[in-house]
Design brief:
Elements: E1 2-7, E2 15-22, E3 28-38, E4 41-49, E5 54-55, H1 56-70, H2 76-93, H3 97-104, H4 114-130, H5 134-146, H6 152-164, H7 168-182, H8 186-198, H9 202-215, H10 220-229, H11 235-239, H12 248-261, H13 265-278, H14 284-295, H15 299-312, H16 319-323
Length: 324
């Protein structure tokens, strides 16, 4: 866990504290606590899972509603909506995106109390972004905002959706608003770096990517944008950071995808060559090397690299991917 952000007293809240944790897959999660003073002691007055925009107070509403459901105090459609919301949020928490979207996406907006409808809209918008339906995500985020949602994740998701739609200026604004609300955050910095790069603002992209790698040296995405934004004479600085990324294979893929998508085969060549030294038995190095060489027009060398990758590809589930 890391204490990442602290906001001092306001008229209604004595303090606001953010804690972040990073799991074994390299995914950050953030919890926000609101503290009030009671009888000379600081106590938690509310808590939010920032990625879901879901507050403890909203879950208490759900608990009350579920109790009423059990004693027959809700109409049948409302009862089913509450059950679907609870099951959908549980599926989202366990990474079952398909089930979560099926349950949460089909709840009528009039069937949930506002304290739950806001988090539902944010959760479905997050799934929309994941599945590439950015337009739908923006519509849901607009509805959540109209309902009064102040969740930081609203601005993060809006930035991600706008970025997907090729609207970097707007994406940059939303990502910066997210960072203003949560403090240092590698995912926010990555979105800013991406937007600045696509706007041709290399110095600003470098500043955002540098902040991202400082916040999380293990992030392959932050390293990818750093490698792009660094001037040619400093590219080696990014390559030397490659050994820090974790989990290695997952973050290496994210890094290489950025370099490939942004049309930087010469930078990809550096990282693929370094990866072969770090992970000599991994097929990813030769395959990424092949892609870089192909992008540079060196087709015979690319073919040899791909052949080496096929020799190292022992996972039967991944072999068709490598063969293609």
């Amino acid at each position: 866990y890391r204490l990442s952000h602290f906001v001092a007293a306001t008229p209604t809240t004595r303090a606001q504290i953010d804690l972040r944790s990073r799991d074994a897959d390299g995914i950050w999660s953030r919890e926000r606590f609101w503290m009030t003073e009671t009888e000379g002691e600081l106590r938690i007055s509310d808590q939010e899972q920032v990625e879901l925009g879901l507050r403890l107070s909203a879950m208490l509403v759900l608990g009350v509603q579920m109790v009423q459901t059990r004693v027959g105090g809700q109409a049948p459609k409302q009862r089913q909506a509450l059950l679907d919301f609870a099951d959908g949020m549980e599926a989202l928490g366990t990474g079952d995106a398909e089930t979560a979207l099926d349950l949460l996406g089909n709840i009528g907006p009039e069937l949930l109390p506002p304290a739950l409808e806001g988090p539902r809209l944010l959760s479905v918008a997050a799934l929309d972004v994941e599945y590439g339906d950015a337009e739908s995500a923006l519509v849901r985020l607009g509805r959540a905002e109209q309902m009064g949602s102040t969740a930081p994740v609203l601005h993060y998701l809006r930035a991600a959706a706008l970025s997907y739609l090729g609207r970097p200026e707007e994406a940059r604004g939303s990502a910066k608003r997210y960072l203003e609300m949560v403090g240092p955050d590698v995912d926010g910095y990555v979105l800013v770096a991406k937007a600045e790069w696509r706007l041709g603002r290399k110095a600003e992209a470098l500043a955002a990517a540098t902040a991202g790698t400082k916040d999380d040296p293990k992030s392959g995405e932050a390293l990818g944008w750093l490698a792009l934004a660094l001037p040619k004479e400093r590219k080696q600085e990014a390559t030397l950071r490659l050994g820090r990324i974790e989990p290695r294979e997952q973050e290496f893929d994210l890094l290489c995808d950025i370099l490939s998508d942004e049309g930087a085969p010469e930078v990809l060549l550096r990282f693929a060559t370094a990866w072969k030294l770090i992970e000599p038995k991994s097929p990813d190095g030769p395959f990424r090397l092949g892609a870089a060489l192909k992008g540079l027009g060196k087709l015979e060398e690319a073919e040899a690299a791909y052949a080496e990758g096929l020799r190292l590809a022992t996972d039967p589930d991944l072999l068709p991917y490598y063969q293609e």
